[in-house]
Specification:
Number of domains: 2
Oligomer: single chain
Distance between the termini: 47 Å
Structural class: mainly alpha
Shape: globular
Largest sheet: none
Strand content: under 5%
Helix content: 55-70%
Number of strands: 0
Length: about 170
């Protein structure tokens, strides 16, 4: 059920929210809670309900503190949402989350989101340049998975914003 919800979050967010509610009503353990919450945050984002998406990301981050062996990408998705949607009352918290998780960065997309979030929040040209450098990487470090973790075309709007900051 949770995997379905994650898969449908962007294209069918209302279905996702229904599936997640059903999951939480019938769950027998907390094992899938983080992924369920991630699907919920993504669904709220798809519905442009950024307030609920932010609140859900914060629940995920709290759960990750409680269960440190279970990790998601919320440490990047939350600040990136805050930065791209200019949710200024969340700026300080988003920057704190980024700083606490810098050691988790591996893929170009992660570096891109990390630096882009900082650049957009602080209007920082140095951070914008680092994000743009990450976006230029065209091959993954994984020999058999050359496209894993790269910055895709879905980030063109942010890239344009970053280019303006660099000027």
């Amino acid at each position: 059920m949770v995997i379905q919800a994650l898969t449908l979050a962007e294209s069918h967010p209302l279905v996702t929210l229904r599936l997640i509610n059903e999951y939480f009503e019938s769950r027998k353990s907390e094992f899938e809670d983080l992924r369920a919450l991630l699907a919920k945050a993504n669904a709220f984002f798809a519905l442009a309900d950024f307030e609920k998406s932010v609140a859900t990301y914060k629940k995920i981050l709290d759960k990750e503190k409680e269960f440190p062996n279970y990790q998601t990408g919320a440490y990047l998705d939350y600040p990136y949402l805050v930065a791209t949607q200019r949710i200024d009352n969340e700026f300080a918290c988003a920057l704190d989350v980024l700083e606490k998780n810098v050691d988790r960065l591996t893929f170009p997309i992660q570096y891109f989101k990390w630096h882009a979030s900082r650049a957009l929040i602080n209007n920082d040209g140095v951070e914008a340049k680092k994000a743009l450098d990450a976006a230029k990487i065209k091959k993954s470090v994984f020999w058999f998975h050359q496209n894993v973790g790269l910055v895709g075309k879905g980030y063109n709007k942010t890239i344009k914003q970053l280019c303006k900051i660099c000027v």
